[in-house]
Amino acid sequence: MSESKTTKFITAGRDKKWTNGVVNPPVQRASTVVFNSVAEKKHATINRANKTLFYGRRGTHTHFAFQDAMTEIEGGVGCALYPCGTAAISNAILSFVETGDHILMVDTCYEPTRDFCDSIMKKMGVKTTYYDPMIGEGIRKLIQPNTKILFLESPGSITMEVQDVPLMADIAHETDIIVMLDNTWGAGVNFSPFEHGVDISIQAATKYIVGHSDVMLGTAVTHEKYWDQLREQSYLMGQCVSPDDAYLGLRGIRTLDVRLRQHAQNSLEVAKWLATRAEVDHVRHPTLDTCPGSEFFHRDFTGGNGLFSFVLKTTNPKATTAFLDGMQHFSMGYSWGGFESLVLANEPSSFNALRTVANPYFDGTLIRLHIGLESVDDLIDDLRLGFERYNSVIQEHALTQ
């Protein structure tokens, strides 16, 4: 009997061989695995890559349950685990490139991804070409004979551009280029990577998978063609995670669907309110047509979450500071995906360092919000008071001119 995706969040990874008769797989901590006979040791050695207890770095039943859950949710045949999302990205790339290769990297990628390409990849002799996230069919012109990977992130970090993933994946596959996607925003819930041509789906499970801002964790799920190489190369680079962290990732999955639906409902209400504000130039929420690529969002995604941005009409660092400093329910902090609301500001000049081919050239400050699970009324009141502080500084500045 088939089950809906909503049900799968409850059942995924709960095979009896992992749970041993209880609801949640126990936390199994181990470095050394001991064998009672030569035959047992040989069996474990032969099957060490197939969810068999062999050595702690290969995983325990806790890890195996979490890996099963991720592949059941996202698709594919296997899931590699990493100590954070950045490790998942860098090691997925490292698993498939060698000196002389070429990578196509979306210009709106997560900042540490850019730093990795500009430092480690460059030092290894792997060239990176950054491309406009909205390039679509134009990606064909950037493909070189040595292009190994097309890397996408959709929606993009900070500025939220939604890419035409299926089109670009089809073009990449014409020359057997591996398509990798930072799927953290979709969280395996709202975007099904393998149904849209992705080969390797990467997540900072730190964010929505865990959902409580208390664990660093990364995942990379892939299909049969690339699973053996991703698994073994990541193992050789020493990638492993704590069983306690894997357990918390698994526990987060149980409420992932319901949490995301509430995040999405809250964020859309806040986004629509922000769109009415005189201070706001436009809102970059993927469900709204003011966000680049929103048509692809409506075509390819099944829902939203709490992360979006909005752009102010002006830039005034002193006024932005006043807006941020008095918040009661929004905290300033990196990352997102927990139950709490967060806010960060990006002045227009900051994009000069972050972008090389797709600088959005905002006239005003960009504010990125993560809308948590608090009362929407409380969050809107917090933002309203923030705008009052912001406007007070703007007016004071105007009087002194």
TrEMBL record:
Keywords: Amino-acid biosynthesis, Cytoplasm, Lyase, Methionine biosynthesis, Pyridoxal phosphate
Pathway involvement of the protein, from the record: Amino-acid biosynthesis; L-methionine biosynthesis via de novo pathway; L-homocysteine from L-cystathionine: step 1/1
Catalysed transformations (reactions): L,L-cystathionine + H2O = L-homocysteine + pyruvate + NH4(+); an S-substituted L-cysteine + H2O = a thiol + pyruvate + NH4(+)
CDD domains per record: CGS_like
Entries under Pfam families matching the protein: Cys_Met_Meta_PP (PF01053)
GO terms under biological process: L-cysteine catabolic process to pyruvate; methionine biosynthetic process; transsulfuration
Any one GO molecular function term: pyridoxal phosphate binding
Highest rank taxon of the organism: Bacteria
First-level EC class: lyase
InterPro entries xrefs: Cys/Met-Metab_PyrdxlP-dep_enz (IPR000277), Cys_b_lyase_bac (IPR006233), Cys_met_metab_PP (IPR054542), PyrdxlP-dep_Trfase (IPR015424), PyrdxlP-dep_Trfase_major (IPR015421), PyrdxlP-dep_Trfase_small (IPR015422)
UniProt-annotated location(s): Cytoplasm
EC number: 4.4.1.13
Gene Ontology cellular component terms for the protein in this record: cytoplasm
Protein family according to the UniProt entry: Belongs to the trans-sulfuration enzymes family.
This protein's name: cysteine-S-conjugate beta-lyase
Organism: Vibrio thalassae
Recorded name of the encoding gene: metC
